[in-house]
Amino acid sequence: TWKWVVGPMFLYLCERLVRFWRSQQKVVITKVVIHPFKTIELQMMKKGFKMEVGQYIFVKCPAVSKLEWHPFTLTSAPEEDYFSIHVRIVGDWTEGLFNACGCDKQEFQEAWKLPKIAVDGPFGTASEDVFSYETVMLVGAGIGVTPFASVLKSVWYKYCHDATNLKLKKIYFYWLCRDTHAFEWFADLLQSLEVQMQERNNAEFLSYNIYLTGWDETQATHFVVHHEEEKDVITGLKQKTLYGRPNWENEFKTIAGKHPGSRIGVFLCGPEGLADTLNKQSISNSEADPRGVHFIFNKENF
């Protein structure tokens, strides 16, 4: 038995030693941004840190717990000179981090008072392959939108600096939320992209649909009255917020009709049930002919 056990135990020990070594490397919190509905953004710097879009890291804050490591998706782009995560305050550990960063205080927090942070990673995800396709569908559910913040930022940087060599030509973005709480920080990014794309006369590059899945018809009626206004009353975007859940069969058929003969990447960060639905639609809407349209499904669950 020991011959079968010693190998895995040795690899496990090596992994723990590497994580311990990484945890000792200095991480500097350069900025803490408080977003509405108790969501904080931590912007950090670490020597030698390199990332790709959609990757995630493990974070430990000894001031909160000396043993706990928690995974967070990176919301910054590789082109930025820092890396960032968005943390929604939903439990004891995140509440402790919120207080340790001084976010519960009204006065300005000095940088030297910010807690020590240990970072392990980054680690790869399916979202890294987004630049391998000319057309992509990005589907985020709730806080699962965070990897696509990194993707959309990176797309914008690449588009501004070298649009002609960017293989990605069209993005279909879907965001499903139960309520409006998560809109606050991400809508700002979409507004910025929307304005900048219009200024460059390429508003069709990014097509997005935002769905409020937790609202019924009576709640939505009040906002339907304002449907004719130039901007959406919830997000402030030109694209109006939709209510309920998307008809995925119609969405896939419409996109397939617009991009015949293409390989279309479908990327999901969301629950397993939605992954099953999108996987089935990707298979059923792909043609048997190698020259026809094909949907390639990629997922990461939380």
UniProtKB/TrEMBL annotation:
Keyword Cell inner membrane: no
The gene coding this protein: Cybb
A matching Pfam family: FAD_binding_8
GO cellular component: monoatomic ion channel complex; NADPH oxidase complex
Record has Transmembrane as a keyword: yes
Name assigned to this protein: NADPH oxidase 2
Membrane topology label: Multi-pass membrane protein
Required cofactor(s): FAD
SUPFAM superfamilies per record: Ferredoxin reductase-like, C-terminal NADP-linked domain, Riboflavin synthase domain-like
